[in-house]
Amino acid sequence: MAYTSLFKKDDVKITTPFSSTHKGIDLSRGVVEQPIYLPNRAVSGTVWKILPSYTKNGVEYKDAPIIYIKHKDGSGSRYIHSHPKDVKVKVGDTVVAGQQICCTGNSGHSHGDHLHFEWLTKWDDLNTRVDPTSYVMNDNKATFKVGDKIKFIGIQYVRTGSGEDHKIIRNSIVGETATIKDGPRESGGYTWYDCIFSNGSTGWVADVKKFVLDNTPTQDPVIPPEQTECEKEVERLKTENKGLSDELATLKSQVEKLENDLKLQKDRVGFLEGSLKERDEEIKELESSFDTLKKEKDRLEKEKLEIQEQFDKYKQENNSSFVNPFVKIIDFVKGKIVK
User: 0.85 exceeded by the pTM?
Assistant: First the structure.
């Protein structure tokens, strides 16, 4: 029997271990419906799926939920055999280490009350299931101590202090070694260690299963020298350059906005110029029509004057045999009108 943060108890037994045909471990205290919690190693996560039932070997098991949780570091876990009434989370919930997820049970393909627990190194890929024993058993004790030499088997952040709010110095390199000089410290759900690396640099790393004890012969750690004035000036210039870069990015954003505004104004000017051109063409057409009408008016007035002159001339020649009858008719009409 051993402690596990899944139960928060130290009398938990692995009833069935991990194997090629059993991709998890079965855990029990010999007491039914025991509360199950998100383990310490998960730190925090999100419930991304809950299957209400499943089929195994052609048999459908109803009311047999499978709970899927994505951990903060991208790994994942599955919880099987709880009864629906004992599921304490829902899809979309954010959970933290120590928060209850469900209870042990006997639902689905099961022959007694227990928890079937699985650990996935990639949260959504069942092909990445690994033995979860080292992740959840005896997980209430610090794994490393001051003076231990560790070797990195994965890439993770190296920070200036113990916590995610501290500045990232760099990424670790697979294969590099370091010696723990301080820690452990707990922050943000992680256990942190201050290390001196083989290249002489220092930094804090969280225990996220990306380093292991290195059993190769150790050497005395190299303590890096204090920064020279030149190195301090370089750091100052780096900080200043970062400020200038941020300011440049802000100016670029402002320039882009001004360019967009200018484009809108240009489009507006183009529209107005097009409208003005149409008005100019209409004015030209009207002026042309006016000129034509004016010429026609002048022509008609000229003809009118010519006719008037001819008529007056004919009238004066009242003895003419052609005009005289018309004059008599006109005088007769005038006389009738007078009477």
Answer: no
